[in-house]
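Submission checklist for the structure archive. All mandatory fields must be present; incomplete records are returned to the submitter.

[x] Identifier: ABC transporter substrate-binding protein
[x] Organism: Yinghuangia aomiensis
[x] Residue count: 517
[x] Sequence attached
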Amino acid sequence: MKRHQLLAAAALVAAVTLTACSASDAPVSGGGAGGAGAAGDGPAVDGGTLKIGLDRPFAKLDPADSTLTSMPLMVLANALYDPLMVNGDNGTVQPYLAKSFTPNADATVWTLDLREGVAFSDGKPLDAQAVAAHVARLAKPESKCPCAGDAAAIGGTAVTGPTTVTFTLKAPDAAFPNLFTRSLGYISEAPNGSSPAVGSGPYTVESVQPGVSVTVTRNPAYWGAKGHADKIVYRVLPDADSRYQSLRAGDTDLIWTETPGQLKQAAADGVRTATGPGSTSTVLFNTKSAPFDDVRVRQAVQYAIDREALEKVVFLGQGAVSDGPINSRSQYRSAAAAYPAHDAAKARALLAEAGHPDLAFDYLTDSRPESLQRATVLQQMLGEAGIKTTIKPLDATSLGTALFQRNFQVMDFVTSIFGDTDAALNSLYVPNSAYNFMNWSDPDASKAIAAGRASTDLAKRSAEYRQAAQRIVGEAPMAFLTENTVGFLATADVGGLPDLSKRTVLSVSPATLWVKR
């Protein structure tokens, strides 16, 4: 498919996408309790009910549930739980419930100092012992928390004072505090029948229907600045178009979106946005499965893809191209990385050299409209280089099974993990990691990742990570496609929306938002 043909198709895709589904004391991210938000918001308004539409169901309100700590649902998690650390601009993390989180010289021992006087919603103190108990609970296999893998990096936990915890790690980790922005950092008591969520957040649960809705009310004993809204009602609205129409009709005040057509239409509809580059689209290669065990074949697919044209068609100019594992907003970023430019002739030459001039494979993807659009455009691009692809849509469960069992040759992979460069590099590209879906191993990359993770010097860590990124792009265990704009849409009545444009993780506290009406 030629570039001009791709761009001509963009208008049709826009129509399809819109109607189809898919460091301070300011709480987490927002205008700050008690103050003004974005320009034009005016003074904050207290009282009333804020109505939020969620894009996916939740099974329970426990931080052990990865659904609750996914970016779209952190707007709910942040109502109930205070994180120890919060995500700042450019991939940085800052203390919040923690006062400080400091390492020893080689980043093997970390000392956490907590705020004093913080209590759970049931009145019990949130102290050092509570932190240790929370981490121990989520580390157990029966918690079923994906964060158990992170907790496994801890060799020992010691309560060394009323508000002080010392963690001794099994290996140096200069980015250890990053692990405490979500599940491990949302300090909680285990939920029970009468208390589905026991945290220290600005709101407490009034009623809940798992997978359907939850209503929270302002926590009268909250230690920090109170939330603006008296009450927040969350409803699960999984259909993207229905969720957007609910916003336009005023039935909801705030929704999450990952739909390019909605982002493009928002201004015309008088809808406000708070978005950032929160996800990355990639192509995974199983490097243990022939012919993708040959780097030339993987590189050929890289050359066959026109990322700029792909972004314009599928994401309608709302995103940007991706050029490697270091997000464009990351603190480790220095300049745009060198990434193979689109060159179908080069792709053909590499395939001929590798002995696969008639390369053909199945392309596994989910059945969301944007995923199928992306797969279709890739199919046409690869066809220009003589590569035949058969698109195989799978349901989410089957796709996840194929991913974790490495039962694929090539797979569509959209993830938010690149919002945390440290986690992405150490999870996806090191041998024996549960998340090294590509079965890829490279001694030079592993050495650079380990050296970067062990260094508390930002410049050295950045240099090592950039070296690892160069190896990853060059060896192509995955092809990088686009950085995708995602985030929140709100009615004109909502104040306090934060600027998320420099964020790699989009975490918003509803306590900082207000309803003007």
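[x] Structure attached
Curator remark: The radius of gyration is 23 Å. The first helix runs from residue 3 to 19.
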